[in-house]
Amino acid sequence: MSETAGLASLFLSSLLAATLLPGGSEAVLFGVLKAYPETLWIALGVATLGNTIGGMITFGMGWLLPQTQQLKHVEKVRRYGTPALLLAWVPLIGDALCLAAGWLRLNPWQAALFMAIGKFARYWLIASGMRYAFIFTQ
User: Fold this and answer.
1) How far is Cα 82 from Cα 31, in angstroms, rounded to an integer?
2) Long-range pairs, 44-48, Cβ under 8 A, ≥24
3) Are 127 and 96 in contact, with CB atoms under 8 Å apart?
4) 74-119 residue pLDDT tens
5) Residue 75 burial by CB count (10 A; 0-12/13-18/19+): exposed, middle or buried?
6) Where are the domains of the chain?
């Protein structure tokens, strides 16, 4: 697989992993960095961008839902606002946070910013752990 194909696969897997569809992008990130370690920052950017766009798709789905009754857990998202989306990467609750933020009509630009910061930090930590694993396995 070429570097470009690897990065495209990383983008697609990170985008899909952040929607309501099941999947994970960590294995693809691992594969790209193992094959092309010099692409660390590009790979982190591609994964973050894809995962943030995926989160914003879920946010948009929430925006489109009709607002009927207030739900207790959604009110927690309202209380913390867009900074709650720093946790949009967390399995199981991340999708719900994005959906709730959209349903609450929180500021989409702020939502994208906080999502991106949290998602980048997570990918950076994963990549850092991988780099140490590469050193010790060689």
Assistant:
1) 32
2) 44/120, 44/123, 44/124, 44/127, 46/7, 46/10, 46/11, 46/14, 47/10, 47/11, 47/14, 47/119, 47/123, 48/14, 48/116, 48/119, 48/120, 48/123
3) no
4) 888 888 999 999 999 998 899 999 999 999 999 999 999 999 999 9
5) exposed
6) 3-137
Place of tokens 């199981």: 92
Helices (H), the chain: 3-17, 26-35, 40-64, 72-80, 93-103, 108-137
pTM metric for this prediction: 0.88
Question: What is the CB-side half-sphere exposure of residue 25 using CA atoms within 13 A?
Answer: 34
Collapsing DSSP states into helix, strand and coil, what is residue 81? coil
Residue with tokens 């999502």: 115
pLDDT at 24: 81
- Token output for 51: 């995962």
- What contacts 40, CB < 8 A, 6 or more positions away? 33, 127, 131
- Rounded CA-CA distance 124/14 in Å is 14
Instruction: Give residue 49's pLDDT band: very low, low, confident or very high (50, 70, 90).
Output: very high
